[in-house]
Specification:
Layout (H helix, E strand, L loop, with lengths): L5 H6 L8 E2 L1 H4 L6 E7 L8 H15 L4 E6 L10 H6 L5 E4 L23 H10 L2 H10 L3 E8 L6 E3 L13 E3 L2 H9 L3 E3 L6 H6 L5 E2 L4 H7 L7 E4 L8 E7 H5 L3 H35 L4 E4 L2 H18 L4 H34 L1
Parallel strand pairs: 2-3, 2-4, 7-8, 7-9, 10-12
Antiparallel strand pairs: 1-3, 4-11, 5-11, 6-9, 6-10
Helix pairs in contact: 3-11, 5-6, 7-12, 9-11
Length: 361
């Protein structure tokens, strides 16, 4: 997939139904609710952008056309990092992004996206849906006039693209890297300089050496952006994002005005997209990684053990400090930490030992 060609190709795809999603439903019934969806992703971008399109289309179909949603990519209606405010004030009825972008609104928001060395995608779903996470998330966003829901997950990400080798912790000092959320705080603690850039600006920034390194998502998306043309080394694992939730946020006043059946449709459509996106990344990433290695001669590197250990120690410090910022952050951290402790014991007994046994077979 070529960086400059993917938008055109996806425009004809089943998920990218043009700028107006939910058109199938609108042919069956007159739209009672016409919504605008703003996203932090480039329009029709694989996985992330098409996931937003899929959500809009699914809500339209499931509602029989009663809700019609027009999707706007980053910068089309509002800039990527302004969608939270746009939905909060009603400029758009629904948004699609990730909660770590809104740490300026609340430090606690980051727990509902991803935590370095924290819960995996499967574990995040457990905490959100059955461990009290969604109730806390809903309580937080209500303060901003929003209703949140998980609407996608990328799984464990890659460590990123680097223009120099990382052989020790010293190599992180002075490193200017695009990395958002808590991962960026950890990099800063290690002596690096975190930069928050929207996806559409990554290739140029890396190619022009405005930044020394960038993480984005994983092979599926990184191949689409052509990041292999701008950096030599591709590192793993993605210690900073072990299971990143993509969110839908609905203007609370708009959501509360919906009848109960449409509220249920919106929330259940989010659940479908949440599961489907993770399945898509699970299927696409292995193929894309092999393409990067065999066709584009990408140098795949594992972070040295001492680097991982240092980042882990710094992550524990950063997350614990976030929990002390305010009472609500402490409340969320307590819930998250309890679930993480339970998950580690269970996953270590089941998933981890199974994978080791399978790989040794």
């Amino acid at each position: 997939m070529q960086r400059r060609g993917f938008i055109k190709g996806l425009g004809a795809g089943s998920l990218a139904v043009g700028s107006l999603a939910g058109g199938i439903g609108s042919a069956r019934a007159k739209a009672e609710h016409k919504w605008k969806m703003v996203t932090t992703w480039p329009k029709n971008f694989p996985g992330l952008g098409t996931g937003a399109n899929n959500l809009a289309s699914l809500i339209g179909e499931m509602s029989g056309g009663r809700i019609e949603i027009r999707v706007f990519g980053a910068g089309e209606l509002v800039p990527a990092f302004e969608i939270f405010d746009a939905v909060s004030r009603g400029t758009a009825e629904i948004g699609h992004g990730s909660a770590y972008y809104w740490k300026g609104k609340s430090e606690a928001a980051q727990f509902f996206s991803t935590v370095p060395f924290g819960l995996t995608a499967q574990e995040m779903n457990g905490w959100i849906y059955h461990g009290g996470g969604l109730e806390l998330w809903t309580e937080l966003y209500a303060k901003f006039g929003l209703v949140p829901a998980p609407a996608g997950n990328t799984g464990v990400q890659m460590g990123g693209w680097f223009n120099k080798e990382i052989n020790s912790v010293e190599d992180l000092k002075g490193l200017k890297m695009r990395i958002p959320g808590l991962g960026g705080e950890v990099l800063a603690r290690a002596g690096g300089t975190p930069v928050n850039l929207p996806g559409g600006e990554l290739f140029t920034a890396l190619q022009n050496r405005t930044i020394d390194a960038t993480e984005w998502v994983g092979p599926y998306n990184d191949l689409a952006f052509g990041l292999y043309k701008a950096a030599k080394y591709y590192y793993y694992p993605g210690w900073h994002e072990p299971g990143t939730i993509l969110e839908a946020m609905v203007n609370k006043q708009v959501y509360d005005a919906l009848p109960a059946d449409l509220q249920s449709i919106v929330m259940n459509a989010c659940k479908v997209v949440n599961q489907d996106m993770l399945a898509e990344y699970t299927a696409r990433n292995p193929v894309a990684l092999q393409t990067l290695i065999t066709k584009h001669n990408v140098e795949l590197r594992r972070f040295p053990d001492d680097v991982i250990l240092k980042l882990r120690a710094l992550s524990d410090e950063v997350v614990a400090e976030i929990a002390q910022k305010d009472d609500f952050s402490s409340k969320v951290y307590s819930s998250y930490k309890k679930f993480l402790s339970q998950s580690k014991e269970w996953s270590g007994t089941t998933e981890l030992t199974y994978l080791r046994a399978r790989d040794q077979a």
